[in-house]
Request: fold
Amino acid sequence: MTDTITSAALIINTKSRTGQAQFDATCQAMQSLDFPVDARAVPDPARLEDELRDALSKKPDLVILGGGDGTISGLVDLLVGQDVILGVLPLGTANSFARTLGIPLDIPGAVEVLRTGAPRRIDLGMIDNDYFANCAAMGISPQIAQTVPHGLKKMFGRVGYLAWASYQFTRFKPFTLIVGEGPTAERLRVVEVRISNGPYHGGTELVDAAAVDSGEIVVQAVVGHVKRRLVKNWAASFFRHKARHEDTRDFHGKSLRIDTEPRLPISIDGEVLAKTPVTAKVAAGIIRVMAPVVQ
Reply:
């Protein structure tokens, strides 16, 4: 297809407290676009895939996904192999994928990228046969995601979520990571593992070596026997201090076999969707996304 956009579909996950208001603001901002947009507000996340399939059946040039990293990762599988460009409308908490692409985190700014940006071919990560946009994790992140009470974040916002995360941190234990198979496999005692297609995780730049167009997946381990190593790494990363590299090991490749002792759940862009052992892979240059034009 050419890069000229003549039609678009918009799918927004409006389950959050501000979902409908975000949808209304997006529709208002999109009046500046030069092409029609089939806009769909979806309050039930279970309906997102059906709505996207229906939108794709109308053959739009551009499909805009509005939501957090989990929404985008959960739907991106349906775009693989389609003659369509992905547009990103960051409406989540961390918005790590949008940060990686340099997309503004406000609605007018993100819509402006849809109007003036250019398609960029990028990689997707894979956990076994499941595509993901940004980052998968083992350790405290899936433990939080698995145990957080339903509705806590909606009722109490980010403060409630952080309080629950702090509680789970007191219950969390380091574990053993195994990278590779057979006699050449490496074993490390770790406090967190990040499987990254981009540098951001939880809205913080953690995996400097990862990029969405590198053709490789990066597995980063925060090495240590005590939990304070993880606190140190997160704090150093937040402040961009050189100490963020002191306790990490990076593994690069097109395909890496990963296991843990004990077996652990894996969160994929915030949603717990897999369990070790898995194969982490890269699908190089598999989709195109509308991104800001680099001057």
About this structure: The two ends are 25 Å apart (CA to CA). The longest helix spans residues 152-171. The helical segments are 19-29, 48-56, 69-76, 96-101, 107-116, 140-147, 152-171, 228-238. The chain has a mean pLDDT of 90.
